[in-house]
Amino acid sequence: PPPEVTINLKNGEHVKDVRLTFNYEPYLKSKMARKTQPANPSPKKETKKAKVAEVHGQVLHALTNEAVTDFHLEITHSTMGSTHSSRTVHDPEGRFIIYENEGKTLTIDISAKGYVPTTTELAGSLGEQSTHEITIPLQPGAVVEGQVVDTSGKVVAGAKIYIAIDPNVMNSNNYENIPDATSGTDGSFRLDTLPETTIRIFASHPSFSVGSSEITASTTEPTPMKIVLS
Predict the structure, then answer these.
(1) What's the chain's average pLDDT?
(2) Which of 37, 61, 80, 160 is within CB 3.0–4.6 Å of 179 for a Cys-Cys bond?
(3) What is the pLDDT of residues 177-226, one digit of tens each?
(4) CA nearest neighbour of 147 among 155, 136, 158, 135
């Protein structure tokens, strides 16, 4: 508050019996504020948070545009390195959502029973849009009805069937040993995710050498095949 009395002094002049009133509370607050404040405060650096984009996808039958309601979704996220995630989707409209930071490259692998597996890549940055709509068509797979036998014609049960992957090479490279099918007690197996092209099918069993056979399957009707193990 303004002083009640103003005393003007000349240079070298002394005044006695003057009562000074000091308001201590504002001074204390000011002193404490100076203690908590750095001597040379540096401007705060604003950390720019990566924007999260949403990829809204739908998986459809390539010929009828009907929704594929059950499928397996594998996602590879790539920047300087890469991370991998997967999940099984059950949706009546064949829809899925991926939450992803902008600036990454996404590789989306879709596989479903009765369809040819497909890969979709969203290259580079996802852009400035917060939502991205994509449609992934799945081609119906060609069906193979096969049987595994030995050189004498006896059926081989429990043989692991691989599409276009040689088990010998796969094991030497430490790939995950997940077969596409396994022969039953009558040696039979069924594949329904083949493309309409010539492809080699391998069969592996601990008691036999790896055998294989080429086949050109058709989507119109099941294609028979036989693999002989020696």
Answers:
(1) 82
(2) 160
(3) 789 999 999 999 999 999 888 999 999 999 999 999 999 988 888 999 99
(4) 155
Give dist(CA 28, CA 67) in Å, integer: 71
Backbone angles phi, psi at 139, to 5 degrees: -80, 135
Contact 181, 190 (CB under 8 A): yes
Neighbours of 55 (CB within 10 A): 19
pLDDT-above-90 percentage for the chain? 49
